[in-house]
Amino acid sequence: MDIKQFKQTSPTLLEYLPNELFVAICSYLNGVDAVFAFSNLNNRFQRLLFEYCQIFDFKSIRKEKFDFVLQRHNIQQWKSLQLSNDDDTPEQIEYFCEHYSLVDLCPQLKSLSLLKLKIEYNSNTLFDQLSSLKNLHSLTIESICTRTMSKFSFPKLKRLVLSSCKNTIWIEVILYKYQSKIFNFIFLELF
Length: 191
Description:
Layout: H1 3-9, H2 19-27, H3 31-38, H4 43-52, E1 55-57, H5 63-72, E2 80-84, H6 92-99, H7 102-105, E3 111-115, H8 123-130, E4 138-144, E5 159-164, H9 169-178, E6 184-189
Parallel strand pairs: 1-2, 2-3, 3-4, 4-5, 5-6
């Protein structure tokens, strides 16, 4: 078969790729990018996205893209979530917590990162929700500044990363509670 005939008969569309290859390609992408790129192409891709895209990093994602992904993907399938209040995504954590419930929609999360959490935000509401996430293996919370924190328990926690101001007495309580467990604990004092 010559090259011209081969080009005419061979599929060149992404839709002809086998599911396994499409899943492998998506495994290299953040779930946000995969959903944004492949949503609404066809039912097959939509099902594959729902089933295999489980890691979502919203750091530096515009609000329009954030809303697009949340409207078109099944949050209850997510295994990893990262939210950030950085300069590109101000108040993203608060927005998510006001419109979506970690308790109802994300009990299956294994990894959660909350970056640049605002000091003035009502953290008790957020931490009350966090305490219901019993499947967490990894929790990262950046920039907490408080004198007290509501108690929480994560039976499967293996990694805890906290950054805080100098009011760190509440961290001692957390460390005492988890001292019998083997897990990575990283604490950073920021200011």
